[in-house]
Design brief:
about 300 residues; globular; eight-stranded mixed β-sheet
């Protein structure tokens, strides 16, 4: 079957259809309220009871990318999956976003849902950058950290300029710009070719995002600080998860990152690209639950 990365990208409205998620029934769907934060009202899916497990999504996606984690992880804790400002169902109120602003937003949501409790934080790609910002801002609130398909370094000047150029293009041509740039490489080649339903889900999720929100995120990522020192001094357990076919944050670089973290653990997911949590959810969920010390009921 030929690669689907060249398929036409239809325009879709933002629709949340939980009937097409696979890990919870109609009786166990998450609640999805809004929470007041320093960056305005933030939408979050909340499911389960117990220790808070915060899921921070990647770019250019939303909390819906965690559809394979909400059910399994909520069997062991209270899963909190927000949409960053400008993503999903959270409006962007400030175009001058930063990793610290996204982190403050996520911390505010956690404080509203689980006041004073320490948090198990899981971040993929951009969500990893936000998780590292949270670690700098409020290390005492974090109980464990899982970084999947992300990196600790700041952008090079060349990479930052590419982000800024994409931000400008997004504002002119819309969110399909991000989808067209990322779809060919965001998942393992085998997934693109052999799992059309998953490919279509990711494509549709990307193009349903706000172009203004994506542009703000690109500018914020271009300006993010280097987090190597932050992780080197991390006071909590850290798990690093990589896909063996990740062409955006390659596994060798992620393994090296884990080696530089005191007590850092590294897990390689075979047959997965940059979106390990969607491509190979079972081993990812198992690794996360083992890391945070929670066993499914």
């Amino acid at each position: 079957m030929p690669s689907r990365s060249g398929d036409a990208l239809p325009r879709l409205s933002e629709v949340i259809d939980w009937n097409h998620t696979s890990n919870f029934t109609s009786e166990a769907r998450p609640t999805m309220p809004y929470f007041e934060t320093s960056t305005g009202k933030v939408f979050a899916a909340v499911q389960g009871e117990g220790a808070p497990i915060l899921l921070l999504h990647g770019f250019p996606l939303s909390h819906r990318m965690w559809r394979e984690q909400l059910g399994p992880l909520s069997a062991s804790g209270k899963v909190i999956a927000p949409d960053f400002p400008g993503f999903g169902q959270t409006m962007l109120v400030d175009d001058g976003m930063s990793m610290d602003a996204y982190a403050a937003s996520a911390l505010s949501v956690c404080e509203a849902i689980a006041p004073g409790q320490s948090i198990h934080v899981v971040g993929l790609s951009m969500g990893g950058y936000v998780a590292m910002a949270m670690l700098r801002m409020a290390p005492g609130r974090i109980q464990s950290l899982t970084l999947t398909n992300t990196k600790q370094e700041a952008d090079t000047e060349e990479a930052a300029q590419k982000r800024l150029a994409m931000a400008e293009k997004l504002l002119v041509d819309g969110s399909r710009v991000a989808a067209e740039a990322m779809l060919p490489n965001v998942m393992a080649k085998s997934v693109n070719e052999d799992r059309p339903a998953l490919f279509d889900f990711v494509r549709d999720l990307m193009i349903s995002q706000s172009a203004r929100g994506l542009a703000a995120a690109q500018r914020a990522m271009a300006a993010r600080p280097d987090s190597t020192g932050t992780l080197a001094g991390c006071p909590v357990p850290v798990l690093v998860i990589a896909g063996d076919d990740d062409r955006i944050t390659p596994a060798p670089a992620m393994e090296q990152m884990a080696a530089g973290i005191p007590g850092g653990k590294f897990v390689l997911i075979h047959g997965a690209g940059h979106l390990t949590v969607l491509e190979k959810p079972a081993p990812v969920n198992e690794a996360i639950l083992a890391h945070i010390g929670l066993n499914s009921k």
